[in-house]
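<instruction>
Derive structure tokens from the sequence
<data>
Labelled lines for chain and fold
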Amino acid sequence: MPALPIYTTPAIRKLEELAAPAFGTLMERAGAAAAELARDLCGDTAKAILVVAGPGNNGGDAFEVAAHLKRWFFRVSVVFSGERDKLPKDARVALGKWEAAGGTLLREIPGQSRFDLAVDGLFGTGLARPLAGAHGALVQKLNALGVPILALDVPSGVDADTGAVLGCAVRASHTLTFIAHKPGLLTLDGPDHCGELKLDTLGLDPVELLEPEGMLLDADILDRAIAPRRRNFHKGQAGSVGVLGGAAGMVGAAVIAGRAALKCGAGRVYLGLLTPRPPYIDDAQPELMLRKPAALLEKGLVDVLVAGPGMGKADSARKLLRAALAAPLPLVLDADALNLIAGSRALAASLAKRKVATILTPHPAEAGRLLGVTTDGAQADRIASARAIAQRYRSCVVLKGNGSVIAAPDGKFWINPSGNPGMASAGMGDALAGMIAALIAQGAEPLQALLAGVYLHGAAADALVASGFGPAGITASEVIDRARVLLNRRG
């Protein structure tokens, strides 16, 4: 299955414009597709369905849905929150169909009625301001019904481009989005409001009409990153990873990154620990080799470096990071390495001048520091933030979080659908850094390694939950072990 494209609202508008001459009104197709899903959700027996129609084209979709369901003998009630004379042309036509089928309009959700399903057609991709007043109250009443909710295109109140909640938002159990995926459904708060997300392209091939702005990652990225091993294979062909970090009190971070690199296929893994009292003996992973930090920068010892896990912010860490930035090796930067760069113009300039691939793996707070904004500022538009970091530091970036966003310096972006809340625990970022480095060591192109590593990281956590472990209490070490299983199941 090919990766699915992602488009922001202006691009969706352009797609609709390009498709109109050949496909006519897309509203009819959207309404028919959503009505079919609503019928599947209810079953074929006559049931009561509430349809909430808004003042724009999303309301037109809702009228189309209502007309289909009424013809199929469902008991349909339609609440219309707009003004007939101000409806767009296609939405007015759809309203006419509803009324021609014998339907009437309500202004409020009936207080005594009971429904088996509600259809949210209040606001779609065009919403640009917080819901308040009567519309906000309608959303609150819809959420309070206690029945499954099918959202049309976008749950009302969710920003289709950022995933931010605009005042309040419908919490749908199902969302049917049209034409192509929107980024706001895949990141930040969007997934918590979408429920089960389905896509109907309405018969279009968006990629043929308009180059995608972004892509949704899928499991095939693992096969695209690294090939299965031949039988005639030795550890030198699997590459070597060096990990710089592990200051006093934070050695575990470097060890987790090293374990992840080792268990995800690197032939050799060296730890360059900054703790003043090495060696650190890891009885659980004696295969990890210790070297003085500076030794990892010597030519020929390692193929890729991870810098930052447990590194600290001391002068010694800053000096080591400066040397790592100057090394002609692919570099994965996490944790304290990112904080040091954010606080030093000299280090930031060195990073931007690098000629070899660099990967940054910030969480939202680190992303804010790299951009000179607050955490909330970085989260306000996660795609814009990831793109800005990638461009400013001339690096490939993953902005971690719900719907992790990967961006390249040329502006391309990807959103990762794998992962779950169980990953909100210490050491997960260290494990991700090690996984990415392991894939690079085995020959993956750095951007492909980043994409595959992010997907694998989340998929491993999902596999744990599917097996009955978590989400609460999942550890980074468990994710590493499950990632190894998934890597070896390919093909």
In short: The chain has two domains: 4-216, 220-488. The first strand starts at residue 4 and ends at 6.
